Amino acid sequence: MTGNDWGSVTERLGGNSYEVDEGNSHILVHQEEARRTGTGKLLVRVCPAHVYSEEEDGTIAVEYAACLECGTCRAVAAPGTLEWHYPEGSMGVSFREG
Ligand code: SF4
Q: Could you tell me if residue 15 is inside a domain?
């Protein structure tokens, strides 16, 4: 019970729809710089959509299809660690709830 009628964040995110630009990620992590600066672990922690995950070898995997285009990762990434642009054309997330 959340105490309101809004439901959980996960439930609300489930209402969104996505047009996935297959094979054309709008996010690129520069792995060596991300590792050196600690940005990789930070990306894993801050992304509300769990786009980033750390593999056993320390590589940061990117599931760009789930991106909410919120910009949080761009705000926290050290210079030279992340390339991010909006998905092309009509690709990306469509929000169903305000
Ligand atoms: S823009 Fe937001 S949702 Fe997309 S990868 Fe960055 S933090 Fe995650």
A: no
